[in-house]
Amino acid sequence: MAQEIITILGGGSWGTALAIVLAERFERIYLWVHQAELARRMEETRENDIYLPGSRLPANVVVSSQMRLSPWILSVVPSRHLRSVLNEAAGLTQNPVQIISATKGIESGSFLRMSEIAEQCFQGKLATPPAVLTGPTFAREVAAGEPAAMVVASRDETFAKEIQNSFIAGNLRLYTNTDVTGVELSAALKNVIAIAAGAVEGLHLGSNSTAALITRGLSEIGRLVVASGGLATTVSGLAGLGDLVLTCTGQLSRNRRVGIELTKGRPLAEILSDTRMVAEGVETTRVALELAAKAGIEMPIMQAVAAMLDGQPAIETLRQLIARAARSEVN
Q1: Sorting pLDDT into bands at 50, 70 and 90, what band is 2?
Q2: How many domains does the chain contain in total?
Q3: In sequence order, what are the residues at sequence separation of 6 or more whose Cβ sits closer than 8 angstroms to the Cβ of residue 44?
Q4: Long-range contacts of 112-116 (CB under 8 A, 24+ apart)
Q5: What are 102-160's pLDDT values in tens digits?
Q6: Which of 43, 86, 235, 321 could form a disulfide with 222 if both were Cys (CB 3.0 to 4.6 A apart)?
Q7: Does residue 7 surpass a pLDDT of 90?
Q8: Same-domain pairing of 229 and 143
Q9: pLDDT tens-digit series, residues 162-190
C-alpha cells in the first residue's frame, strides 16, 4: 500500500461511500465534512443520515469539520465549492501532497477541469500531477459492497498505478488511464445528457428514444473531448460510455431525476430545492455549450437541455430536436 492514511474532502453521499469502501485498505481515513453539526453527528452515530442513510462508517474513519491533511488527498467537493475548499486546504500544508479528484464538472468562466483547479490551488505543493477517479458508480451501491469498476487517470502513470493498487477493495475494481482530459470531460458531460434522458423518461417516449439519445449523446461528448485534446477511445470507456449508460438509465441518477421533473412543468429552482444532493449537469450545461462554441462544435442535445433548464416545455424541445435537418451519422 502506498499510504496508510488518506484524507477525503467532502462528506456528501460519494465522499461517505468512498470512506466506507476504502476503510479496509487504509489504517485511518480523515473525512472532512463542511457542516459542523453533520460531522459531529456522523462521528457519534457512524452514519451520514442526510446523504447516505443506512450505511455505517467503519471505526477507522475519523469525521470532522476541521481539516486534517495527509499525503494523499481525495477531493469529493461539489464543483462550485471546489476552488475555495482546495485553497483552504493548500493553506494548511507546507509538505508536498498528492491530489486525487473525484469531482465532476467544468469551472464556469475559466473552463478549467477539476484537476486543473487542484493544480492551481496547490501550486508548488504537489508531489505529482493530480489524478482523477471516476466511472459508472452510484454511492449507495458502492457503500453496500455491490460490484463496480472505475478508472483512475493521471499524467503520472506510476501515481495512477499506486492508487489502483491501494483502492482495489472488495468488489471495487480500478483501471488506469493517462488521458486526464478525456476522462474528466467525459465524466462531466455525461451529466448533461442524463438530464435529457430523464426528459425522455418523463414523457414516456420509450426505450428506442433512450437508446438513440444515449448513442447521439455519446457522439456529442466525443466531439468535444477530441477537440479539447482528449482521446476518442476514452469516450468509449468507463468514464464515457459506462458512466453515460448508468446516469441515463439508473433510478438513483440525480441528473436524470431533474429531467423527469422538468417534464412536469416544474421550475428548475423548485426541483433543485427538493434535495440537498447536487445535480452537477445543471451547472455543466452552460459551460459545456460555451466550450463547444469556442471549439466550433454543434451540440444539439446539450442545447436542448439548456432550453429545458430555461423553462421551454420538454415536449416542444424534443420535437425541435427530432425535427433537425437530416445528416450523416459520422459528422
Answers
A1: low
A2: 2
A3: none
A4: 113/180, 113/181, 113/184, 113/185, 113/188, 114/75, 114/79, 114/82, 114/184, 115/180, 115/184
A5: 999 999 999 999 999 999 999 999 999 999 999 999 999 999 999 999 999 999 999 99
A6: 235
A7: yes
A8: no
A9: 999 999 988 999 999 999 999 999 999 99
Q: Dig out the grid coordinates for 316 from the structure.
A: 416542444
Count other C-beta atoms under 10 Å from residue 84's C-beta: 11
* One domain, residues 155 and 21: yes
The alpha-carbon radius of gyration of the chain (Å, integer) is: 19
Q: What is the 3-state secondary structure (H, E, C) of the chain?
A: CCCCEEEEECCCHHHHHHHHHHCCCCCEEEEECCCHHHHHHHHHHCEECCCEEEEECCCCEEEECCCCCCCEEEECCCHHHHHHHHHHHHCCCCCCEEEEECCCCECCCCCCEHHHHHHHHCCCCECCCCEEEECCCCHHHHHCCCCEEEEEEECCHHHHHHHHHHHCECCEEEEEECCHHHHHHHHHHHHHHHHHHHHHHHCCCHHHHHHHHHHHHHHHHHHHHHHCCCCHHHHCCHHHHHHHHHHHHCCCCHHHHHHHHHCCCCCHHHHHHCCCCCCHHHHHHHHHHHHHHHHCCCCHHHHHHHHHHCCCCHHHHHHHHHCCCCCCCCC
Question: Which pTM value belongs to this model?
Answer: 0.94
> Which residue numbers are catalytic?
190
- The candidate with the shortest Cα–Cα distance to 99, out of 232, 190, 229, 10, is 10
Query: What pLDDT digit, counting tens, does each position of 188-217 carry?
Result: 999 999 999 999 999 999 999 999 999 999
Mean pLDDT taken over the chain? 95
Question: How long is the chain?
Answer: 331
Q: For residue 233, give its domain range.
A: 181-322
Q: Domain of 28: which CATH number?
A: 3.40.50.720
Percentage above 90 pLDDT, the chain: 90
Burial class of residue 14, CB neighbours in 10 A (0-12, 13-18, 19+):
buried
CA angle 10, 89, 253 (to 5 degrees): 20
- Are 158 and 10 members of one domain? yes
